[in-house]
Amino acid sequence: MFLQTYFLVPQNADFFFGTFSRCFQDPRIGFPQQSSHAFEEARRLMSACQQPAFVHQAQWVGIGFLLLCGVSLACYLSHPWWVTRSRCERFPALPSLRSRPLSRFPSKDDPDGREIAEYLDQQCRTVGVHPPPVWMLDALARSSNGLAFGMPWRRRVIIDAPLVRCFRTDRDVFRAVIAHELAHLRNRDVDKTYLAFGIWWAFLTVAVMPFGVLTLHSAWSGGPPVIPPGAVRYLVDVPHAVGLMAALTVLVHLIRNSVLRARELHADATAAAQRGYEGAAAIPRALLDPATAGQGHGSARVALGRLTRRLGYWPTPEKRQRVLREPALLTRPTVWELLGAGVVAGVFTASADDLVDTLFRLLWGKLNTRMGDLTVGCAIGAALTGVLAAAVWRTVAASDLEPRPPRAAWLALPAGLVGGYLAGASLPLLTDGTELPATTLEGQGFGWLLRAGPVLLAGAVCATVWLVSVARGLLPRARGRRALYAVVATSVVSFAPWFAVWYSVRRTGRSNGFQPLLGDAPDIGSSIGWYTALSRWTGFTWQPLTVQGRLPFALVGLMLLWLVPLALLLVVGKASGTHADVRPQIRTALLLGLAGGASVIVTAVALPFLARAALPPAVLHYPGTQQDMGFPGVYWHTYIALACVAQGAVAMSISATVPRHRPALVLLGTALTALAADLGRAFAFAMAGCTRLFGASVRQCSVPFVPEVLAEDLRTIALRGLAAVIPATLLGVGTRALAQSRTATQHGTRTASGRRKHDRTRTWLLATALIVLVAADVAAVALALPGDHDVWKTWLRG
C-alpha cells in the first residue's frame, strides 16, 4: 500500500517517471550488440541514471514503515492511559476521554479488605505471578469482571465492584475471574493484546486512510499526467484500489481478532490447569461473552451474528467450554488457521517482492534477478514450512484426544496452507495484463495459479507425509519439546529451498517453467528409433531441479530428512528401551540400498558391451558438438537414468517391506544407492575407455576419479532420482496395504523382539554406514561450491 501510495502523489510520480524519461533520452545510454563490454557499460550507465528514482521510492516506503511501527508503539505505550478512561457501552474497545473512578484495592485497614488482600496474594503465588500486580477497583462498574493491563514493569488489574461481592456470595466465580486475569499476566498476554490493538489502529491511520484519500483524489483529478498510459489504469483504477484496500483491511482485522481470541482461550486453559475442570467450570459463567449478553433466541439477527461472533475478538462460550474440557485441544490447529497463515504469507511475499527488487536494483542495478527471488522464497518458505511442521506435530499430538482422523484428512492441512498462500499472493495483482516499467508486476495475470499451484500443493503434501511419519514415530517416545524443535528446524532447512526454487520458477514470464523438456536427438543415429527415444527421454531437463541443484542445501536437506528422524529414534529409543524396533529396519534399508547400488555398477560394467552390440560404430564414435549431442552424452544420461530406476526399485522395496518410518528409511536406502551409483560412474567410463567404446585410438583402462565430477554427479543422481522415488514409494505402500488386506491373519506375527540381540559389530557397522553417507554428502557439497559460486554470481548480475 505504501508503494502504491507513492505513485498516487503527483510530485513523486513526476520525479520517478521524469527520471526514467531523462535516462532513456540520454545519448550515452544505449544497448549496443557489438560486444558484451559495451552492453555492460550501457547497463551500468542506465542503473546509475535510474538510481535516484529508486532511492526516492525506497525512502518513501521506509518512512511509511517506520511511521507504522512508531504509531503502533505509541498506541501500546499509551494503553494504560486509555484503559483508565471510562469505556462506552456500545463499543467496549473504544474508551472515551473521561477518567474512570478507580481506587487502590483492597485496603488493609478493615478486616474484609485484609482477607481479600491475603487471598489475592495467595492466588498470585499459586499462578506464579511475581511481583504481584497493582489491584484497582472500578466502583461504578455493573459487570462482575476484571481487566489486566499495564507496562511490563507495572502490571495492574481492575476489579469490578460487583465482583468483590462475589467473594462472599460466590467464591467460585471470584476465583475464576482472578485466575483468568492472572493467567493473562503469566502468559504475557497484556503486551500481545495491546500491541495487536496498536498495530490495527496504526494500520488504519498510517496506511489505509492515506491510501484511500489519495486514490479517490487521483481518480477525481484524472491522475498525474506524467505517468505513462500503460500505468495510468493500474495506478488510478478506483474499483481495484478500493478492493485491495478493503481486502487488506479485513485481513488485518481478522488477524487481530484471532490474536485476541487465542489470548482469551489460552488464559482459560491456564486457569483450568491450575484449578482443574471442576474449579474452572465457573469461567464461562463469570466471563460472559459481551457480544451475546442480553440477546434472545429466535431473532433475525442471531443467524447473521453467529458468524460475526465466531470471527470476533471474543471467543464463543461453546469454544471456551471445549477448551476447558480438553485444554490440549487449544494447541491443535485448524484448517482455517493454516488458511489464514497462508494468506498472510502470500500478501507478505507479494509486498516483499517490491522491496527486495528495489534493493537489488539499488545494489546491483538489475531488477527481478533470480537471486532476489531465491532470497524472498527462502524467507517465506522457512515461515510456511515451520508453520506446517508445527501444525502437523501438534495435530498428531492431539489426535489421541479424539478419534483418529482418516488419512485423507491430512491433505486438508497442506491444502489450506497452499490455498491461502495462492490467494494472498494473488491479492496485490490488481489488474490483468498490465506491465509497469517501474514495478515488478508481471503481465501474466492470474494464469500462474493453474501451472504453479498444483506443483506447490504436491510439494506440501510430500512434506506433510514426512512430518506425519516422523511425528507418529517420535511422539510416543519423546519427552519435552526438543524433538519438536529438531523436526521444525529440519523442515525449514530441507523444504524452504524447494519453496524458493518454486517461487523463482513460477515467475518465468508467461512460459510454464514446470513443464519438463525432453533432450535433443543426435544427428548421427537419428534414424534409429529406439536410440532417438532413449536420448530424448534420458536427456530431459526440468528447471526446478536445475535450479535446486545449484543450491548448497540440496544434498544437505535430503540428508537431514533421513538423518534427523532416525537419529532421534535411536537416541530416544535407547532412553526408553525401544531402539531394537528401529535398528532392524535401518539395516534392511541399508542392505536394499546397497543391493540397488551394486546392480547399477554391474549394469554399468555390461553397458559398453550392450552398446557395442546394439549400435553401429558410426554412432558410437560420434563425439558430438556444442549444438548436437554425441554418444558420450547419451551414454552418461543413460547411466544416470539407470541409477534413477534403481533408486525407484529400492524405494518400492523398502516401502513394501518395512512397517514404520517409511519416508526416512526410503531416503536412507536411496541415498546409499545414489552414492554407490556415483562411485560406479567412474567404473562405467573406465570400462568404456578400456573397450574403446567412443572410438579412442588407444585403450585407457584407468578409473577417471575426479572428485569435482563425482560431486556434481552425486547431486544429479540424487535429485533426478526423486522423480522415480516418490511414485515408487506410493506404489510400494499400496502393494503392502493390498498384501495386508489379503493376509491379515498372518501379517505382523514376526516382531523385532523375536530377533536375536544386536551385537557390537552390527552396531558399529550401522554407525559406520551412516557416517559414510553423511561424510559423502557433506564432501560433495564442499567440492561443488566453487562451481556453484560462479552460477550465483550470474544470478546476482541478472
Automatic annotation (TrEMBL):
Necessary cofactors: Zn(2+)
UniProt-listed Pfam families: Peptidase_M48
Chain segments annotated as transmembrane: 60-77, 194-214, 234-255, 329-351, 371-396, 408-428, 448-471, 483-505, 551-571, 591-615, 635-658, 665-688, 717-739, 764-785
A single GO molecular function term of this UniProt record: peptidase activity
Domain Peptidase M48 span(s) in chain numbering: 115-273
Protein name: Zn-dependent protease with chaperone function
Keywords: Cell membrane, Hydrolase, Membrane, Metal-binding, Metalloprotease, Protease, Transmembrane, Transmembrane helix, Zinc
Keyword Hydrolase: yes
Gene Ontology terms describing biological process: proteolysis
InterPro entries, sorted: HtpX_protease, Peptidase_M48
Entry-linked CDD domains: M56_like (cd07329)
Keyword Ligase: no
Gene3D superfamilies with a match to the protein in the record: Metalloproteases ('zincins'), catalytic domain (3.30.2010.10)
Organism: Streptomyces syringium
